[in-house]
Amino acid sequence: MFANVVPPTMTPVARVLAAGPAAAVTTTAPTAYRGEVVIGADGHRSTVRAAVAPDHPNAAFAGYLIWLGVADESALAPGHHYPHHVDILHRGKDTLPGYPLAGRDGSVRPGSRRMGWAWYDASRNDLLRQKGSVRGTVVHHSLRAADIPETTFTELTAEAADLWPAPWRDAILDSLERRDTLGTPIAKYVAERLVDGRLVLVGDAAHVPTPMTGSGFAASMDDAEAVASGLRHGTPLPRALTAYERKGLARARSLVQSGQQFSRSFAGRLAQRPTRPAIR
Q1: Considering Cα of 171, then 177, then 182, then 186, what sign does the dihedral take?
Q2: C-alpha of 47 from chain center
Q3: Least confident of 49-53, 160-164, 217-221
Q4: Are 61 and 185 spatial neighbours (Cβ–Cβ below 8 Å)?
Q5: Who has greater pLDDT, 124 or 6?
Q6: 182-188 and 22-27 strand pairing
């Protein structure tokens, strides 16, 4: 994001630089843009973060992934019990948050709603590495359905049928049958800096917590509001960004650290479980 300058198209950023009274961004086009400030809201693999914190540029793999899916209520067995609150289920070494959703058109009428689920799994890290989703300690991308071996779908189907009660079991089985499932490696990033000159980090560029905190989106909105508030009130830019970091750094670190106990416990205890081999 740029103050006073808006690129005409969405293009990947190759390099950012803050020198003197201006900041600059070079895209892969290549095209250069200049402005008063560069706000890095570019996610857990932030390019801007690498410039702000070159000694600590990468979010690290937390040791597990979540399988994600959404099922239409109408596709499930008639007469099933639709959940009206978030459920967090534990079955042995597995964890499953499930959550009710409005329909694709925003409807909450019975029969037109949806159900989302997130299945935490630390037993398939070899698959993540074989597919390049995790390289070394760095998360690079999620597993799309096309990346997931058929044998893994078969295993997940058998495990879901054994582990989870209705209606979540039915929602998971529906997503797996349709091959509409995403496997996302979980990353974590505890910030050491949020600002360097005219470069500033917000959102997942600034802090990457486990989804179990349930606070990532709200924290990102708070970051954006804090930066905007400082700039809006006419405070000189360097002072406004310094104040944002002074107030926000402890909060950003605390957010991630609050979920680290879960991540360490979850990944650690599942490390005792046999790791399934990657399937080529």
Answers
A1: positive
A2: 16
A3: 217-221
A4: yes
A5: 124
A6: unpaired
